[in-house]
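step: validate -> pass
step: tokenize input -> pass
step: predict -> running
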Amino acid sequence: MNFLFYTLLSLFAILPLPRGSTFDWAWMLMSIVVYVMAAIWLLWYRQGKVVVTPAFHSARYVMILLLIWLVWNLMQTVPLPIGLLEVISPLSAEMYRLGMPDINFAPISIDVNATREQLITGLAYVLIFAMVLLVVNSMKRLRIFTLWLIVLGVLQAVIASLAYFGGQEIYYNVLSAQGTFANRNQLAGFLELNLAIGIGLLLSSMSEQGSRSWRDRIRGWAQSLLSRKVRIRIYLAIMVVTLVLTRSRMGNTAFFASMTIAGILALLIMKRSPRPVVILLTSLVIIDIFIVSQWFGLDQLQQRFENMKKEKVSLDIRTNTLNRLNTSMQTRALHKDAALTGTGAGTFFAVFPAYQDIGQPGFFQHAHNDYLEFMSDTGWTGLLLLAAIVLITFAAAIRAMRKRRHPLMRGMAFSSVMGIISLMIHSTTDFNFRIPSNAALFMVILALGWIALSMPVAKGKLKLRTTDER
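step: predict -> pass
step: emit ->
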């Protein structure tokens, strides 16, 4: 079992390095490693060496929905009678008719190879979700795993900051921090999720003894923030600085908005220790925004927001903004012709040119809006499946915040809530779910919600049941 756990740690260490694993060899390697891990676990399960954890058992309905999602992706590659295709997916039928007028059978996907690639990576994400639930099966492992992810976030932040201040390019020459990712928005998405995990871990260290005097409480909070957990606090500060250096408007907006919303929910839902939550979040806002970030370009990020409101802005800013807006509007037009089924997972790049304005330059591989792209690829069928998966998990994390008493479980529930909110906001203008390292990390965020709800805190071996031990 230790082998699978350390393999999981190694996998997440490697994922961000080859441009977020967007290279073909990188996402294929990720898929192979996860497939092998799953096969080994199943073999050990058959031999009685491992058991199904309570977290996996609790998340079984989400697993079913994820498998249905994969089946839907697979169905998009199955040839159908052209008459039936014209009824359920008229856009796909029309595109096949244009190229092959006499065709009798055709799939929903207009690019079967692209959809198969999405099916391969999609199965890998589902197995990552399952492996986290099955392998991270103790509080000790949970602490090690989450702390490891935070360290990886810090490492990426250090790489990005050193490259930025040293004027060195890694993949592309840009004027903002991007680390080993293709652009700043992808790094911002990666840091947002790691920050959510870090804040949850720091929150779990806050004292919750309600009977102490105010002097003892203040002393305890100060010790938690400034001494015993100082390393995590420094890690968070480094990542926030780098997040500001990315100059990603929506990345920074998503982070601070999600932290605020999750904090408010925590105050309303948690039955104990609301004051430590206030102290922690207040310190994050004051230290990160008004002190640390001010030294590293918060004014330049603010300038990017102000430029959006000005008529006289630079050509690259105006072109980039207009291209995103035009792409979104044109993708909405695409939805009208492929509302039910989409045109096949991963086929946006192939179908969008038919809707692209003739005066709009460039090739768009993604829609710069995950919601619109999922709708284009899989229609309402796929989008509603994904929405159900996220909403059910979000509800589980909220339930964990309300019912669990152990600080670590509540902290991980907070991480899940904040991470979900953050990437849901960021997805309105970017495509983090198309970046394997970010998508895999989001599956961890989902898994943390179920772990927070169902992981037993009592010592001893885990049993195959949903426990009420808190």
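step: describe -> Confidence is low (pLDDT under 50) at residues 311-319, 460-470.
step: cleanup -> pass
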